[in-house]
Amino acid sequence: MGDRLVHHGEATKKAARPRLAVFKFASCDGCQLSILNLEEDLLALGQALDIAYFPEASSDMKPGPYDIGLVEGSITTAEDAHRILSIRRQTKVLITIGACATAGGIQALRNWADVEAFKQVVYPSPEYIQSLSTSTPISEHVQVDFELWGCPIDKGQLLRVITDLIAGIQPRLPADSVCLECKRRGNVCVLVAKGMPCLGPVTRIGCGAICPGMGRDCYGCFGPSEGARKGPGLPPNTASLAKHFHGGLQLIPIEIMRRFRGINGYGSSFLAESNAWEKKT
Amino acid sequence: MATRPTTQFGTERTGICIMSIASEMRGILPTANLQRLLDALSAKGYRIIGPTAHDGSVVWETVRSVSDLPIGWRDQQEPGRYRLEQTASQEVFGVVHGPQSLKPFVFAPREPLLQIERTKDGFAPRQMIPQLEKVAVIGARACDLAGLTVQDRIFLNDAYRDPYYAARREGLFVIAVNCVRALSTCFCASMETGPRAKTGFDLALTEVDDRLLIEAGSEAGFDLLSDLSLSPAPQKLLDEAATRVDACGHSQVRRLERSRLPQALYDAHEHPRWDDVAGCCLACTNCTMVCPTCFCHAAEETPDLDHQQTAHVRLWDSCFTQEHGYIHGKNIRPTIKDRYRMWLTHKLASWIDQFGMSGCVGCGRCITWCPVGIDLTEELSALLVPASRSSVTSQQVEGP
Amino acid sequence: MDAEADSMANPYVIYPATIVGKIREAEDINTYRLRFVDEQARRQFRFKAGQFNMVYLFGVGEVAISIVSDPDEPALLDHTIRAVGRITKAIADLRTGDVLGIRGPFGQGWPLEEARGRNMVIVTGGLGCAPVVGAIEYILRRRTQYGSVTILHGVKTPQDLLYRERFDAWRRFPDTEVLLTSDQPDKSWSYHIGVVTELFELVSIDPPKSIVLMCGPEIMMRLGVPILIRRGIPATAIYVSLERHMECGIGLCGHCQMGPYFLCKDGPVMRYDRVAQWLGRTGV
Predict the structure, then answer these.
(1) How far apart (Å, rounded) are the C-alpha atoms in residues B318 and B289?
(2) B182-206 tens-digit pLDDT
(3) In chain A, how many domains are there?
(4) For the segment C95-130, what is each residue's pLDDT rounded down to a tens digit?
(5) Per residue in C235-270, pLDDT tens?
(6) Using one digit for the tens of pLDDT, what is the confidence trace for A166-219?
(7) Does residue B300 belong to the interface with chain C, where contact is any CB pair within 8 Å?
(8) CB B234 within 8 A of CB B340
(9) Is residue A160 over pLDDT 60?
């Protein structure tokens, strides 16, 4: 466990290839697919790392311990809650990948609902479904070393983190707002120019400002900007943005609540903001 | 054409006062013939960049034809709001400005400074100074030129000269447009930076109905003007252009109270207004990203997986980011209040001490592009009014 | 274009420098002795005591580190680096023979040449005051050129006392006084007890002849300087070394501002009267 995998000095001396494992919990596999989508970088990754456990990609699953563990998905069953403890014990540097693992994911909407009622509606034999009433991020169960946000994650960011870890460097994960990236890319602000309820100002940088770049409003898939679940900083000023959605863009409270209660609805400051607007609906 | 009036320009782009321009340094071009100017620029090897209507605003893009320009469009700007409107007119320069000034052309948002390769001796850096590219920007406003002057002061004329900025700057040819319409967010008149382009342009246009008054502001501009062989501008048109530009200045509703700066803002350090604005401010960095003068940047490395190659890159940064005020173990400016105060105090006060000029040019972009519409002129006015609570808070800072 | 001249004009160019010595100062502090790989860079490099370099680690980034070796021997450059951030922690792993990068020298150092003949009062506090260590070594190597030397150093706990051997070595110089204090001492502590400003009472200072160099937490400067001024030392004879985030070293990146100053080019050493109004201001 720690902020670095190996000593930088050792890394430059070409030590043994670090062993990578990719684990899946409640999720759509999209973040794992981001790894497979690395294309030519994937080959380089395969050379730099020993991909020891990655069921999505290979049936050759070697036992631990692992140097780097990428964890996708949230904890939604008692069995998973147990399994993540064992993974933590076998993994030197544990990194959550994606909104599910980092903030509970879209399935964390169940945290505001009656899961038993869902089961009755969806499944013909609900008694076979063994599920917790909540979907929770990995960090609520074990110590997490680094968190990669996004739905899915940005594969470039994943590659940078792995590059740093292999080299014995503590990865750097900026927590600034999406706006910084949006302006660097020359996008026109969709909030100001089109009146769209863009969450960019309170959302974490890292996606490359894809949605505003396509004329769409950011829906916060990279989670709250600085001061989120892990790391330093104060929570983003979601209250001011929400107030502007209401007064400036004429969104009604339930729309604002839904805006913040999305893919990262269970991510700390988005959670607080959506709860605050739920009271006003 | 008369002989080149070199004395007007000297060796630098000093700019000139409109009233002193010799008649051969200006001419009149029917707006319908604007393509001639673009063609003349192309013939001189310039890539032409102009405002183009995109995504509900105008953005700078390469233009080849006058039809690429936002003909008939106008922008309406107010705090936190930007809208383009189509009008029935054939105005070419009806849109005052979009989110960006000239800044990205000289101070690139993302620029590799060095490409570094591992070698047996350690590493070898290669300088990534951009190749000289002749770029002509048409449609820059007086505030944009003022912003360029401020950035020149910082990147070219301070203790160290920035060779990356210098390389981009060298190829830049600026065709300014004097403003004849003010936005609700404009306050260049109170900053004495506009609405008339005073310095730093190669050519300046004033659009008067279906005609463009063109003036040269540099030798390169004069050369181009000579190539166009324009008919001389009648006095009546000159008067009309001057009247319209003056009227634009007078029509501005916002103003920045700068007479007591910088000291008055230093004195307002403990003003309770900072708490109020911090409640609104998103620390999203938009104001700094659209500001023509903000120059903060960060460095980033982009090593490849086996750490054999890396680029040392600089990126636009902002005093609103978490890492900006970070020193090991603590953050000098952890709160939004600290960061907004840093930004405004720097922009309007300490900038004057640092560079002998204001960091604000009155373009109003930070007002428009602030998602929640914070208006720095309003904040400053409030901060300049002594607050009753200020005596209490100033005691707090004196504490142990 | 003359490529070499061009590279000299580009303040962003980083020059490789080999680690020729690594001296352990404390658990997480090492002094790296660096030597430029390039012979021309080695020949041309000149610095003043108290200036800093941007030290670069390949693929990771740069960090501002003061040069603590002697300016009269610029072929070998000592940098004392504490492993606290992502760059410095990785640097801590390096060994003799590994290569770092150097860009510099930058900033304004201590006024050691102007201070010749004066009594030196050096006040430091907290962990690892590398900038002032370089100044002390500079003065003591030219011992006869200065008047009395008084070194006052305060730490929170005895474990925070670094450079213990250096302090012992310094106190053996003639007309040189070294006083150490801890405000949270344990039984092992044989020096003074209290904060560093309390040491002012224990030493004789000749105000018109003295120059004060200070390095440490800003709170120490804010509380300590007024006491010195009350004892008759003019604010213009007090120099403080300040710290802010530095990324470019050349006053362009905007991070190191303190009021109207860019500490990378106007500092890091500042005369007290110029910064007095900014010290202790929240968020400045």
Answers:
(1) 7
(2) 999 999 999 999 999 998 999 999 9
(3) 2
(4) 999 999 999 999 999 999 999 999 999 999 987 678
(5) 999 999 999 999 999 999 999 999 999 999 999 999
(6) 999 999 999 999 999 999 999 999 999 999 999 999 999 999 999 999 999 999
(7) yes
(8) no
(9) yes
B57 contacts A184? CB cut-off 8 A = no
At C33, the amino acid letter reads R
> Do A160 and A200 share a structural domain?
no
- Report how many Cβ contacts below 8 Å link chain A to chain B: 138
| Structure token pair of residue A243 | 């107030």
- Domain span holding position A132: 8-166
Q: How far is CA B7 from the centre of its chain?
A: 28
A80 and A135 belong to one structural domain:
yes
Torsion of CA A139, A145, A150, A156, to 10 degrees: -170
B371·A244 Cβ contact <8 A: yes
Is it the case that residue B394 has pLDDT exceeding 70?
no
Residues belonging to chain C = 284
Does any domain span residue A172?
Answer: no
Q: A169 and C86: CB-CB below 8 Å? A: yes
The ipTM, to two decimals, is 0.93
Mutual angle of helices C164-171 and C130-141, in 10-degree steps: 30
Angle subtended at Cα B202 by Cα B198 and Cα B206, rounded to the nearest 5 degrees: 60
Domains of chain C, each with CATH number or no CATH:
3-106 (2.40.30.10), 119-275 (3.40.50.80)
Parallel, antiparallel, or unpaired: how do β-strands C15-26 and C99-106 relate?
antiparallel
When scoring A3, A4, A169, A234 by the number of chain C Cβ atoms within 10 A, the one with the most, hence best to mutate, is A169
Q: What is the pLDDT of residue B11?
A: 40
Contact A179 B285 (CB under 8 A): yes
Q: Which domains does chain B have, with CATH numbers?
A: 20-102+130-250 (3.40.640), 263-305+313-393 (no CATH)
Residue B398 pLDDT exceeds 60: no
Residue with tokens 């760059």: C87
Q: Last residue of a domain, which of A166, A187, A212? A: A166
| A43, A143: one domain | yes
Same-domain pairing of A119 and A247: no
Separation between Cα atoms, residue C274 and residue C266, nearest integer Å:
10
